[in-house]
Structure formats: structure tokens, C-alpha cells
Amino acid sequence: VQLQASGGGLVQAGGSLRLSCAASGIVFAIKNMGWYRQAPGKPRELVAQIAVGGNTGYADSVKGRFTISRDNPKNTMYLQMNSLKPEDTAVYYCHIFPNYWGQGTLVTVSS
Question: With contact defined as beta carbons under 8 Å apart, do 77 and 50 qualify?
Fold first, then answer.
């Protein structure tokens, strides 16, 4: 199984980014999945998750700003991040249940 995360970068506060996670070697459509992030000196935290049926959940800190989605035919998961804040700065990891992780993509939000 391979997960390839991309889309991170440097953006000013208030800006937007879209992260992608392309998966291979896994039956993507039948898996729950999500995005986590880890800021320097902090533990990894769940940002958003999406179930097989499309139900979604978000951390309180990103509700209303981030949107998780999935494209099963493309084996790809996305995280649309709007109204970014400096506190969103972190390495973002995609995760597929039960324990598959992408390599992480760095998001830096400048004030």
C-alpha cells in the first residue's frame, strides 16, 4: 500500500490550499480515511475524516474552513483548506484505516 500526499506549501493567512492523497495497492472505496496534522512540538491530531458512505467529521478548530472529500474511482482523497490561519501550520498526513499513512506534506501559513 502506498499513499502519496501532495499540495502543501507556503500561503498567507486567509489563503487556501488543497491537499491530495493518492492511494495505490488498496481497495480504496471500502476504507474509512482521514487527514491528521502535527505541528512542531505537538502531538499528531485528527483534522478531518470521511467514511465509506461519505459521512464526514472535523476537528472543532477547522469546522467551517476545511472540507474533506474523496474520489473513489481516482483512489484519491482531498482536503480543501480555506481561511487558513498561522495555527494551521503543520505537517499534514493522510491516513487510511486501519494503519496506512502517507509521508506528510508541509503546510506553512504566514501571518
Answer: yes
